[in-house]
Design brief:
- This protein has 1 helix and 6 strands, in the order ββββαββ.
- The chain has 138 residues and is mostly beta strands.
- The chain is globular, with a radius of gyration of 15 Å.
């Protein structure tokens, strides 16, 4: 997979407390362009309110994902565990596959990794959630 096309918030990353600079629309980006190279590697690259997405290779073949209600979508070439273990962006090595994370909800970005914790209105508390995902080949 090389490219992600989605309908949701974009073109840049967005989290519950950082959505002021994004808008709803159809967007496309190379998978590597969906990452934000923070000085200290941490969660990044999520696209919120995604209703549908296509992950395709150079021949335009791949996977079509539909979600109801809208979800947060993160696509990267390393695992969440790789990201958590990295001390520097150079520690992140692309694997031979793409890792897709679909979240029903997310915590705000404030995490005390390099500043204050998440503000109370953006904290994610555990609660039941239901969503429908449809996967189809492209």
């Amino acid at each position: 997979m090389d490219t992600v096309d989605w309908f949701g918030l974009g073109p840049g990353e967005a989290y519950p407390d950082t959505s002021e600079a994004v808008r709803v629309g159809r967007f496309s980006a190379a998978i590597d362009e969906m990452q934000t190279p923070y000085v200290y590697p941490q969660e990044n690259g999520s696209r919120r309110q995604v209703r549908e997405a296509r992950l395709v290779d150079v021949t335009n073949r791949g996977l079509h994902v539909m979600a109801s209600p809208a979800v947060a979508l993160t696509v990267r070439r390393w695992t969440s565990e790789d990201l958590a273990a990295a001390r520097h962006t150079t520690d992140l090595r692309a694997r031979d596959r793409v890792f897709v994370t679909i979240d029903a909800s997310q915590h705000g970005v404030g995490s005390s990794s390099c500043g204050p914790g998440t503000q109370p209105g953006y904290r994610l508390d555990a609660r039941p959630a239901a969503l429908t995902l449809t996967f189809r080949p492209v």
